[in-house]
Prior knowledge:
With about 1000 residues, the protein is mostly beta strands. The chain is built from seven helices and 49 strands.
Amino acid sequence: MARYLFGILSVLLLFCFSNALAQTGVVKGTVKDAQGSPLPGVTIQVKGTNKSTSTDVAGKFSIDAAKGSVLQFRFIGYQSIEATVGNDGPVNVTLTEGQKTLNDVVVIGYGTTTKKELTSAITTVKAENFNTGVVATPADLLEGKVAGLNITNDGNPNGTATVTLRGPSTLRTGAASSPFYVIDGVPDADFSLVAPSDIVSIDVLKDASAAAIYGSRATNGVIIVTTKKGKAGQSYLTYNAYAGIEKIANQFQVATASQLKAFLAKTGQSLTPANDNGTTNWEDEIERSSGFSQNHNLSFGGGTDKTVFGGSINYLEDQGIVKTSGLNRFIGRLNVSHKALNDKLKLDFSLSNSITNQDLIVNDIPLYSANGANPNVFRAAVQALPTRAVYNADGSFYNDPTLVLGYNPLGLLETNTYNQKVNLLLANAKAELQLPFGVLYNLNLAYQDRNTTGNVYLNSASELAQNLGGVATRSQDEDTKKLFENYLSYAHKWSGKHDFKVLFGYSFDQTETGNGFQSSNENFVSDATSYHNLALGTAPAGYVPNYGSFSDETLRLISFYSRINYSYEGKYIFQASIRRDGSNAFGANNQWGYFPAVSGAWRIIDESFMKDQNLFDDLKLRVGYGKTGNSLGFDAYTPLTQYGTTGSFYYNGNWIGAIGPTQNPNPNLKWETTATLNLGVDFSLLKGRLSGTVDVYDKKTTNMIYSVPVSTVTYLVSTLTANVGSMDNKGIEIGLNGTPIKSRDFTWDSYGNISFNKNMITSLGNDISKIYAGDPEGPGQSGTTVSIIQAGYPLGEFYTLKYIGLVNGVSTYMGADGKPTTTPTSTDRTYAGNAQPTYIFGWGNTLTYKKFSLNFFFRGQGGNKIMDASLADFNTPYSATTHNVPVITLSEPVTDVNANLYSTRYLESGTFVRLSNATLSYKFKVPGNYIHGIRIYTTATNVFIITKYKGVDPELNLSLNNQASGQFIGVDANNYYPKTRTFLAGLQVDL
């Protein structure tokens, strides 16, 4: 396939270059603004060709163009115009400032509109405003850019960002709490198929009046990605590349070997000789001194009025800062569009293929533990004694089997291999046919195939497979997605005042998952073959291979949808939509649901009473209401009775595995439903110098899904997945864009957003009063939770002991009776604050001087608390001989047997301000028509952070250990892949 793809690319590239060979006469001219000042940087292009240039600092230009050809003049913030080349003389033009953004295209789902006509809360982020840096997933491009959209990530190249829009709306984890993604009209397409350099814009549908057209999958918002496409008569070839290095931003502060020994001597403790044989910084041992990253993207496009093509190839390598981790990905994309039947039929075909190789770490290996603890490499690096050597005299990894928490951190990485190869293919075909009477028919067919190969090898020295001679496991898993969509649309204008549009559609979406197998073997003659040949293992008699558990299932979603748009005089705008979804993921009595929405806008600026004012350039009021559902994260077997292994029984001299029910059926199970009321204002002031948006919303979620306890007298098993509760989010979002300074040579553009959200659990149903959640599983505290889910409190409310200080050298807490206690119980816990931020914000600035540009972007949050369980877990001064301790322990009394108990002592402020990104760039103007421009830049990410949080980083990645929901948010539990600080240099060449 790769050979065919590169062959096609080669032919298309030759076609691109062939358009650049014609030479004509030289046309000169000048471009000025309405005040007569020259405009530098204006793009001038010969219409229908790839010839273009730009004006110099004096507003002058020259370009090869034939008599009678048309020149197109484009400049950001000004109205584009065209001019025809005459017989002789210069072509001088004047550009006037215009409300360009009002005519910007906004993708709304099954169609587009303009910002001027928008009635819902939708934010569009263009490519020029994306975050710059080492970006493995497109979600990172939006970090801090959209009001109300909270994106968190760590430094793991194979990690997944947590994305939350307008607060959480579910108790469930993973996909259930994430927005719904649409790529080039394909719903639920995989983000790994898109290289960030190929994205033109990302539209975020925030309120239900916008998102309801996607029905039962839209509660958490919809993110629509639009990629580059070729344009008729405009051939282009662009090369983008960067290379960078990553450094650790911060480490967990633990005692050094000398500090630990001094503390032990002071407190009358001593190390065993076996654990006093070296001086080691274990965090340095598991981390590279620097990680290397590189990215190369070659994109192209062009064509004629009939046929347009485009495509790209992209290679990304991201070497993780933790040893043995890393990622490399190759993406190839090709799209072709052709018009036929006298341009009444438009056919589009696109093919995308990504191949991802992931080097994962031991934390990601499922089902393995030894020495009584999970093999968490970050926990091991903190708790390992700094007085222990890394290696034995013979070069093998040093271990002390007498230690319960005795993993060698570097050994966990070096002796255990886990990698995955993911091959992802998406083919998409579209047709658009103009029917009689102005009716337009659209057909959308898509097929996505994801093949994942997993390879695990625990070598003969692994602590996870002691005395087994090496254990190898290989797996293969395939998921497929088939999509059939078609819809009819009709638009009509009459009397110069009325504008009417209507859409009717049908969709069939089928996803098959779990088609795979797994096998394993052990006791290999040599570790050299790793997992590559399972037949070389010589497992003992009676060994049962690990066949895994793959559940082959088919999930179907059938939908009918419609939307109506009406505008009167362009001032009064109305939109209504409804979608009917049916899914086999839910109970037989609730497989169909309706999701309506209605919204309207009043363009106040167009009223007669606004004509004489000079303050506002644009002013629009919006209001919308709609209902959406959340069926994400459910499989086809969720409402059904399931059977599995339920123990064993003795029969005829043998123990036989028993099969019994493991899940209760629930024919009444339905999706979670969210109703949102949104009120918004869009405005522009001072001739476009200041513009912005303000939205106020109330988002109510009902029929929340949770596993509730039930009686086995009437049910098969003790729990039932059911709809039990409700939740509410209220908030306000503000987004501003301004140009404080704009002169001939210097421009300062500033943009920012801030959002406030208040979350509240309003009900948990009749059978549940409280849910105790958030178990960090610290030493000696397994089963101790630190959070509570309860009506009247927000999701992520901390519920823990109240620390009041030291009494006679022992940590003391407030008891439920109001008296101090040194022997607290679970009944002494109290409500202690919330893990959700009260506000999040982003603020960016772009300073442009001639051809130089400096952009820097801050983001942050506040009002939330973090439980620093990482600090609590190892603050045990009385047992510092068995594991290392945090620096704070060095000043603790050894008599404090309560020092590590989870309590308000370890609750800290999560407020921070981070300089997230800073980029300095310079654009070269290259003479001639072959190279249109060169841009070089240097970028630093995660430059610095201002925070009072004493842990590694206050911005926790909530995708870890079920932290994607209120059941674990805000708990720093020592499972955090370190954030990095990146420095990179990049190059962009436009041909």
